Amino acid sequence: MHRLLALPLLIAVSMGAKLPGDVPIPTEAPRHTQTLGDNIPASGTRQAPASPAITAPKADETALAHCEAELRKLGSVFEREEPVRGEDGCGIDAPYRVDQIVPGVSLFPASQLRCATALALARWTGTVVVPLTEALPGDVALTRINHGSTYICRRRNNAASGKMSEHTIGNAIDVTGFEFSGRDPIAVSPRTGDGTVEEAFQRAVRGAACLHFTTVIGPGANAGHANHLHLDVIKRKRGYRLCE
To answer: DSSP secondary structure string, 97-114?
Structure first.
């Protein structure tokens, strides 16, 4: 390219033409480089893309009023709290603290859930967990459901990168165990093959949970869910439910 550009100058000099004192020197066209914002620095080494954020559903006051009415019908005792906010889309416009899920059954520790999640929990407790408790030997009543987390701003499985968890928008609860009057607590744990009434109870409440939640993951699915039932209300295409 340099030779082609210099050829007319040589011809002009040979014919006696005078050249200006300052002659621009041709340079190569700059190569296209992407910036760090494109995840490719000037060196050409590709960087990992930024982890995707999550979008929290906007609060719909009409829907919330209906949800609250349904919770009251089920005997739930709850309180709407101030909005919570976090990074990468974390937060709940209208978080709810549920103190009593259904009559006589508390939720421990304190919770921050979307109303839709609280309603799914109340329906599961009232129509599944309480009746199955009555099937346990002896005079037994469900008194409390324990959980490991409700709202928390983190990624799935506490990973350093990847998709945000449904916990980040109040869609999920991790149930760790059940407490009763009339018998010892039942903690969620790997029980496959135990052949005990505790295994039967855990299998039953877990299996029926997928009628009320769109995701149910527990012991045996992976190591991260060995000691709790992850329950959430994520919406998927065609109403798909994940039951593991």
So the answer is: EEEEEETTEEEES---B-
